[in-house]
Design a protein that fits this description.
By secondary structure, this protein is of the alpha/beta class. The protein has a single domain, classed as 3-Layer(aba) Sandwich (Rossmann fold), CATH 3.40.50.300. It is built from six helices and five strands; from the N terminus they run βαβααβαβααβ. Helix 3 packs parallel to helix 4. The protein is globular and about 45 Å long.
Length: 165
């Protein structure tokens, strides 16, 4: 079997620092960084107004993203995906993406408290005012109800990044 690239993806509550960490991991591993936010804004500019809009449009791009990432992995390219892996179902999608082409993976789990995440979201609102309508405590609480901590039975290569408050 030829040398496959490695896939890196991230799990953590909203505001945990997944996008920031994805940039660091990409730089450290000579990897291509693929951002869901970039793909969504390029394909559906100004069309995401609600969380339901996000879910619908995210699901629309996934088949194309999957095929693209698998081609890169098959070429031996490391890929960092700044897409959420916050539920068992989302993580199963990443795992299938890798297993279908025989590539290794790392799931980076950013384990921060709600208070830490909300503090980071508040800072992000100031730095990126265009996100202020989405970066709120109400949206955080809504999205966090769906968050599922990675479990050992998911058989993932987890890098646990726990930050003390």
């Amino acid at each position: 079997m030829k040398n496959q690239g490695k896939l890196y993806f991230f799990c953590g509550k909203m505001g945990a620092g997944k996008s920031t960490r994805s940039q660091v991991v990409a730089a450290e591993n000579g990897a291509v960084l693929i951002s869901e936010d970039d793909w969504l804004s390029a394909h559906y500019p100004a069309q995401i107004q609600t969380f339901d809009d996000y879910i619908k449009l995210s699901n629309l791009i996934k088949p194309f993203v999957k095929k693209h990432v698998q081609k890169l992995l098959n070429l031996g390219v490391n890929v960092v995906m700044d897409f959420p892996a916050n539920t068992v179902k989302q993580r199963a999608w990443f795992k299938a993406l890798c297993s279908e082409v025989g590539s290794e993976h790392e799931l980076w789990y950013l384990d921060l408290s709600d208070e830490q995440c909300l503090s980071q979201i508040a800072r992000r609102r100031v730095m990126h005012p265009e996100r202020a309508h989405f970066d709120t405590e109400a949206v955080f609480r809504y999205v966090t109800q769906y968050f599922e901590v990675p479990e050992i039975n998911e058989d993932l290569n987890v890098i646990d990044v726990t930050r003390s408050p």
